[in-house]
Write a structure and sequence with these properties.
Rossmann fold; alpha/beta; Quinone Oxidoreductase, Chain A, domain 1
């Protein structure tokens, strides 16, 4: 069938993207879903820094590639052998497919699935297949989803069914921002009631993490960002202290003050700041994704003598089939006001302008409607 998708053919185009226009809406041929796959009609997709990092070249991927990975939609067709899903089901997409058979999946850590990571790196579906093409040849899949499109063929392992009464525009956020942010707080960091916590970086993932910290019952919650607007929103969402990361005196006053610090900005400077806020014996968790070449200068003496813990968190250390339903339930109970993350809606032909806003830090989660 013919679909329309936002295709990236060259990374590193200059900003503003409104002028260079790295993303183009193109008609592509989509093969039908193969065994273990589904065709999803996309209803809504969120714009994330993981998309931006491909556009700007920070995280190189094979091109051409149909972008987008945080989305929700409705299943239209199923391939052979799909179980647990039906035509008409509402689903969200998860950007890390898990094979269910490797040692990591067997240990309950699907975020580390080896076949899933290999497929994402090579721009294919979990099966290794490419279902998109144009007149010149194959078009790669972004993180197994390629969700900036009217339709997407994805592995059933990239889908989680959700209740039909959940608005699809809000459901989309659970596939990346909520899983990554809330999961980092409650799974990776395992925030305990009364703990002191800092969240550094208040994009969509960072604010979701702050919601998770609040839902977990943390005591003092310190929010850190460079944007006064995002800090104001953090205060409304439960932060007890708000620091502008550019105010060195204010940051220094809170040095070594929290038991857990979560870094969500994807920069080494932010990670160093999070580490500096962490107490002796405390834990620093990073879910940010800087360029692969970025390295962290770290005092090993402090790590050892102060019994520090530094942990990475990918997709919030989540088991999506377990965590998506419970996070949605928290949302329904008012514990995770995920709808507050939405800072705007747009049409597909406005994607380039929207990525300018994301790069400038003036938007949290923009939703493109299909």
């Amino acid at each position: 069938m013919r679909i329309t998708a936002a295709v990236l053919r060259k990374m590193g185009e200059p900003q503003p993207y409104a002028q260079s226009r790295p993303l183009a809406l193109e008609e592509l041929d989509s093969a039908p879903p193969g065994p273990g796959e589904a065709l999803v009609r996309i209803a809504a997709a969120g714009l994330c820094h993981s998309d931006l990092s491909v556009i700007n070249g920070d995280r190189p991927r094979p091109l051409p590639m149909a972008l987008g990975h945080e989305a929700a939609g409705v299943i239209e067709t199923l391939g052979d052998g799909v179980t647990g899903l039906a035509v008409g089901d509402h689903v969200i997409m998860v950007f890390m497919p898990s094979c269910g058979a490797c040692s990591y999946c067997g240990a309950g850590r699907p975020a580390l699935c080896e076949p899933g990571a290999a497929a994402n790196g090579s721009g294919t579906l979990l099966s290794g297949a490419l279902r998109l093409s144009d007149a010149e040849g194959p078009v790669h899949h972004h993180l197994g989803c390629s969700a900036f499109a009217t339709h997407a063929v994805v592995s059933e392992r990239s889908l989680v069914r959700v209740d039909k009464d959940l608005p699809l525009e809000e459901a989309a956020l659970f596939g990346c921002a909520v899983l990554t942010g809330v999961g980092a707080a409650v799974n990776t960091a395992a925030i305990a009631p009364g703990q002191s916590v800092a969240v550094v970086g208040l994009g969509g993932v960072g604010l979701a993490a702050l919601m998770g910290v609040k839902a977990a019952g943390a005591g003092r919650i310190i929010a850190v960002d460079l944007s006064h607007e995002k800090l104001a929103l953090a205060a409304e969402l439960g932060a007890t202290d708000c620091l502008n990361g550019a105010d060195s005196d204010a940051v220094a006053a809170f040095a070594g003050s929290v038991e857990v610090a979560l870094e969500m900005a994807g920069s080494i400077a932010a990670l160093e700041l999070a580490f500096s806020l962490t107490k002796r014996g405390g834990t620093t968790v990073t879910a940010g994704l800087p360029p692969p070449s970025a390295t962290l200068p770290l005092s090993v003496v402090r790590l050892v003598a102060e019994e520090r813990t530094l942990r990475g968190s990918y997709i919030g250390s989540c088991v999506p089939q377990r965590d998506v339903p419970r996070f949605i339930q928290w949302y329904r109970e008012g514990r995770l006001p995920v709808d507050r993350l939405v800072s705007g809606h747009l049409q597909p032909d406005e994607l380039n302008e929207a990525f300018d806003r994301l790069a400038a830090g003036t938007a949290i989660r923009q939703i493109v409607r299909f």
